[in-house]
């Protein structure tokens, strides 16, 4: 599904990530932890072809990321739902249209997905904010909207970068439930987070692996979590 | 062309993903309008110059005059001699001596209706109509010199040629102006589209994140600029047409300025200006979008 082989990345200075190799098998659930600035967001960006490795190879759905043209990358993005750390929206469109944006840009009939869309908004508790513009939303509301947008296309893979950074425990539990549900439907999930309690809660319900980036390397975290 | 019809039919939702544009689109509307207005006048100029060139070319070139000045008693023999020469000159379709009444009519504006033409030593005029191929004027002059000493051939070429070539030059300048106007419109739309794309870099990043292809992103911009350019050009062309229509028409005077309009089906040509402006904007925006989107890695 997503495979990294001896991948290194540097933003121009020294190497931030070195010699990463990992396979995200279909239906797997991964957490990604590590100190701030370790490169978690960078790692996720490599996984959806927002960045290209400076060494090694990233394979997305079997194809070498570096060999893809921009149309191919666009198609990959439709199969990978991304929750960005700084949740980006189109500020001139109401929340419901932002959540539906992946459908819109891939030429799907948004009207036919109406119930799906409503259910999803209900699930993330944003039904009454559907017509609000993104700048009017709180940080937590934005993160819930970003998650809703990431899963609206029923993607094969969901990559979430600190999806629970700005929301309370109860809401983060609900987000986790949604991710677990998606995982049970066979989706591949990877969540970058500092929230150890969230990881523990997840491990109680699904088989989740915990990866840790430290000293530029990727390690499997111990069972001590 | 199928691109363009697809563009117009395409889902309006694609249009919504790019924020309602501000000044760039108004700028396009205005420049397309101004350019279309100018194009109408350049078109009118070219067509009028073209009409004049062919009119002068045809009318003046096909006819010339032989003027015979001779003592009264030799006049008739010289005229007869001249007609004989003209009849045997290749390239001359017909030659005809004007009779007294016609000569009188020609002189009337200057001397009044009571002029006794017969009594005055005015030259006699022979009107020559040439064939399409024309005759050799200098050869004819030589022959006339020998046989009809009082004959002067006035073949109008002395003043006709510069007029006709001036009119053709004017027509060329008119078409060149239209090309330049099209180029200027393309340049302005390119600048406006670049500005719009740059102002929306953040929007483009979000669209890419959720899987929009470059074609999709470009289409939102291309559609907008094409529609605005077409609308602006339609308004500008309409105002320009109104201006041309309101020009005083005095066809009798036949002067160049009063002839500066459209005639017959030529009135239909300015209808082409808005769609051409649309095509220009379409191509310019598509090129700009392709370039900018390639640059925004
Ligand atoms: N576009 C960029 N250009 C240069 N350096 C960058 C860029 N983006 C990130 N960095 C640097 O790379 C390092 C890793 O950034 P990254 O965002 O991947 O960290 P992170 O693990 O996600 O941190 P956090 O937990 O704070 O989100 C940081 O030191 C950051 O300053
Ligand atoms: Mg980060």
Structural write-up:
- The complex is a heterodimer of chains A (225) and B (297).
- Helix content of chain A is 33%, strand content 24%.
- Chain A has helices at 40-47, 70-79, 95-99, 101-105, 114-123, 139-151, 169-184, 196-203, and strands at residues 2-9, 17-24, 29-33, 55-60, 63-64, 80-83, 157-161, 188-192, 208-214, 217-220.
- In chain A, strand 4 (55-60) and strand 5 (63-64) form a beta hairpin.
- Chain A starts with a strand and ends in a 5-residue tail after the last strand.
- Chain B has 2 domains: 2-52 and 171-296, no CATH class; 70-149, no CATH class.
- In chain B, 67% of the residues lie in helices and 8% in strands.
- A 4-stranded antiparallel β-sheet of chain B has the order 2-3-1-4.
- In chain B, helix 3 (23-62) packs antiparallel against helix 7 and helix 7 (157-199) runs antiparallel to helix 9 (214-246).
- Classes of the chains: A alpha/beta (225), B alpha+beta (297).
- The interface between A and B is medium-sized, with 26 and 22 residues.
- The structure holds adenosine-5'-triphosphate and magnesium ion.
- Magnesium ion (MG) binds at residues 40-41, 85, 161 of chain A.
């Amino acid at each position: 599904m997503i495979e990294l082989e001896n991948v290194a990345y540097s933003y121009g200075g020294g190497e931030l990530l070195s010699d990463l190799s990992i396979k995200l098998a279909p239906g797997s659930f991964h957490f990604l932890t590590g100190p701030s600035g370790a490169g978690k967001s960078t790692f996720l960006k490599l996984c959806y072809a927002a960045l290209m490795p400076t060494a090694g190879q990233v394979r997305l759905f079997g194809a070498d990321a570096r060999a893809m043209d921009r149309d191919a990358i666009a198609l990959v993005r439709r199969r990978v739902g991304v929750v960005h750390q700084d949740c980006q929206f189109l500020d001139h469109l109401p929340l419901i249209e932002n959540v539906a944006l992946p459908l819109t840009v891939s030429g799907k009939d948004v009207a036919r997905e109406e119930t799906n869309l409503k259910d999803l908004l209900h699930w993330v508790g944003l039904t009454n904010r559907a017509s609000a513009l993104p700048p009017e939303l709180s940080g937590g509301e934005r993160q819930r909207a970003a998650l809703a947008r990431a899963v609206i296309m029923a993607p094969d893979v969901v990559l979430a970068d600190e999806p629970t950074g700005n929301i309370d425990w109860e809401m983060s539990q609900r987000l986790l439930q949604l991710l677990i549900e998606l995982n049970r439907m066979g989706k591949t999930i990877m969540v970058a987070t500092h929230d150890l309690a969230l990881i523990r809660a997840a491990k109680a319900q699904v088989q989740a692996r915990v990866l840790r980036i430290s000293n530029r390397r990727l390690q499997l975290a111990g069972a001590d979590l | 062309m199928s691109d363009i019809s697809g563009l117009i039919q395409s889902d309006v939702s694609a249009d919504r993903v790019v924020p309602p544009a501000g000044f760039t689109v108004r700028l396009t509307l205005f420049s397309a309008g101004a350019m279309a207005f100018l194009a109408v006048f350049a078109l009118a100029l070219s067509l009028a110059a073209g009409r004049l060139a062919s009119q002068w070319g045809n009318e003046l070139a096909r006819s010339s005059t032989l003027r015979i000045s001779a003592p009264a008693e030799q006049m008739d023999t010289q005229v007869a001699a001249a007609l004989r020469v003209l009849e045997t000159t290749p390239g001359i379709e017909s030659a005809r001596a004007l009779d007294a009444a016609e000569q009188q009519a020609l002189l009337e504006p200057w001397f009044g209706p009571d002029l006794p033409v017969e009594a005055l030593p005015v030259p006699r005029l022979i009107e020559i109509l040439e064939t399409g191929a024309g005759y050799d004027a200098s050869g004819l002059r030589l022959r006339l010199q020998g046989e009809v000493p009082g004959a002067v051939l006035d073949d109008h070429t002395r003043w006709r040629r510069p007029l006709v070539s001036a009119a053709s030059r004017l027509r060329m300048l008119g078409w060149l102006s239209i090309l330049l106007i099209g180029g200027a419109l393309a340049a302005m739309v390119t600048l406006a589209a670049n500005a719009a794309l740059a102002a929306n870099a953040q929007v483009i990043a979000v669209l890419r994140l959720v899987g929009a292809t470059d074609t999709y992103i470009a289409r939102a911009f291309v559609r907008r600029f094409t529609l605005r350019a077409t609308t602006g050009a339609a308004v500008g062309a309409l105002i320009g047409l109104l201006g041309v229509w309101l020009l005083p028409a005095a066809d009798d005077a036949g002067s160049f300025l009063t002839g500066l309009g459209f005639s017959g089906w030529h009135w239909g040509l300015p209808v082409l200006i808005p769609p051409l402006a649309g095509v220009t904007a379409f191509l310019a925006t598509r090129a700009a979008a392709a370039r900018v989107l390639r640059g925004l890695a």
